[in-house]
Task: inverse folding
């Protein structure tokens, strides 16, 4: 009997025979990871100043850029609400900023349909400072010039962290599409 | 990567409608967010219940993390034990640091006692702590400085209670859930604590600067008597904070006061103590009109009538 090509039975996502993608995993993993990212305030880091990157927001950007259309456009509402519950921001600031981000990314994508890693990073490097700045303005803290200067380390850290987050998301995307469901 | 072709509606009416619905939903989400934001900036207490429910739900994660923080430190200490001189030294230094603060506190207490005895002929006893708990997290990516505490209403914690560590004041409780509560750290820009110099009665306000230091503003302006190394303790004025708890050490003298370094760095704190509100009845009386406005309940009204 003639041997089949090895990739006819398996690919990067597992065996093709008798297995299929799990819809829960395929559609739920982005939501789950973004929500876990929003839980950073519960990390055992008691920071004297804002220092950790807004991981939930970075994950949202990364998922949205890697898989356009996977997160519905209204995803900013529930994810932003969840982020607000833990981030210490007044409720509503995350909802507003996440929703506006989803719209802005959609418009940007219509304008530049073909994208590369560098462009994604550039977009993230533009979006994250705006997000942090508006978060600080909405936070209800009295913000002066000094407090804005305090955002700089966090801002740089977030911009540098984005490629790592994007890489993590692409690994998670492979997990997301693993064929785990047994058919028949 | 190019977007999937479904993103282009073309002349397909159904696809056009779908795209439009997407924009509409996202736009509505943004509007709702703006509305909620306006409400929560206008009335900051509106969503307290929602938030404390959420942090109650996620508290186990934070507990594990906090235990991990303590555990990992013990692990490294165990390793460092083999090179024991170094760790012993660190331990002793820590002890000296605590002792120094304690000494300043004791001096302040002594003076406080003298003053009180002189004025009121009243001896002050030790304060019974409400509970001891762990700081399980902080808003490390926001401009606000809140921390989450692993004790809540079930442990007797109430909003306004001061939170201290062995090294000094950490903050005060802002919102209380069943098992967790949110603490406003001293370094938040909204936090103001009445303080006085430990050695005499130079009174001031310590305001947070959001970067781990405090701005100490003297109440009596004139010649600035502060020097680097001065230790400030709470004065107890206005209630809430017990007098004589260490707050900050002056590191830089400015025109109208000083910049102080926090004595109890919350990052280095494992276990904190929640104390009852100092002069609670006075504070309650002061906040009564505000409370009755917030709750609009019959209790506060009857409380007012009873007095």
Result:
């Amino acid at each position: 009997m003639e041997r089949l090509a090895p990739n006819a039975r398996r690919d990067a996502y597992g065996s093709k025979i008798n297995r299929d993608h799990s819809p829960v995993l395929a559609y739920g993993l982005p939501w789950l990871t973004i929500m876990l990212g929003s839980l950073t305030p519960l990390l055992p880091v008691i920071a004297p100043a804002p220092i950790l990157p807004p991981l939930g927001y970075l994950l949202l950007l990364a998922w949205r850029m890697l898989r356009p259309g996977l997160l519905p456009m209204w995803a900013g509402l529930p994810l932003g609400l969840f982020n607000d519950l833990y981030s210490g921001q007044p409720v509503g600031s995350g909802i507003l900023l996440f929703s506006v981000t989803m719209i802005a990314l959609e418009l940007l994508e219509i304008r530049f349909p073909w994208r590369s890693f560098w462009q994604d990073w550039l977009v993230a490097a533009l979006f994250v400072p705006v997000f942090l700045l508006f978060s600080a303005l909405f936070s209800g803290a009295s913000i002066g010039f000094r407090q804005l200067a305090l955002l700089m380390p966090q801002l740089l850290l977030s911009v540098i962290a984005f490629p790592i987050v994007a890489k993590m998301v692409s690994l998670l995307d492979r997990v997301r599409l693993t064929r785990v469901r047994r058919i028949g | 990567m190019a977007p999937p072709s479904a993103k282009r509606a073309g002349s397909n009416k159904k696809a056009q409608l779908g795209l439009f619905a997407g924009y509409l939903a996202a736009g509505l989400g943004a509007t709702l967010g703006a509305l909620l934001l306006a409400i929560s900036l206008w009335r900051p207490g509106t969503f307290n219940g929602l938030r404390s429910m959420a942090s109650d739900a996620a508290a186990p994660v934070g507990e594990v993390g906090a235990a991990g923080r303590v555990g990992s430190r013990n692990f490294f200490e165990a390793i460092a034990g083999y090179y024991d001189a170094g760790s012993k030294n660190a331990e002793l230094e820590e002890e000296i640091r605590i002792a120094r603060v304690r000494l300043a506190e004791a001096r302040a207490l002594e003076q406080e006692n003298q003053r009180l005895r002189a004025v009121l002929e009243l001896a002050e006893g030790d304060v019974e702590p409400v509970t001891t708990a762990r700081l399980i997290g902080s808003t490390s990516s926001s401009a606000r400085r809140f921390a989450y505490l692993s004790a809540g209403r079930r442990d007797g914690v109430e909003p306004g209670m001061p939170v201290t560590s062995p090294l000094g004041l950490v903050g005060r409780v802002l919102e209380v859930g069943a098992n967790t509560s949110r603490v406003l750290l001293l370094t938040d820009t909204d936090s103001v604590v009445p303080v006085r110099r430990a050695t005499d009665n130079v009174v001031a306000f310590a305001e947070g600067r959001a970067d781990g230091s405090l701005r100490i503003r003297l109440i009596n302006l004139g010649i600035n008597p502060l020097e680097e190394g001065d230790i400030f303790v709470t004065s107890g004025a206005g209630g809430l904070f017990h007098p004589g708890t260490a707050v900050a050490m002056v590191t830089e003298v400015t025109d109208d006061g000083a910049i102080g370094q926090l004595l109890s760095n919350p990052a280095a704190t494992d276990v904190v103590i929640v104390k009852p509100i100092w002069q609670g009845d006075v504070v309650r009386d002061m906040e009564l009109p505000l409370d009755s406005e917030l709750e609009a309940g019959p209790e506060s009204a009857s409380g007012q009538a009873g007095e």
Observations:
- The first strand of chain A starts at residue 10 and ends at 11.
- Chain A is about 60% helix and 5% strand.
- Chain A has a mean pLDDT of 88.
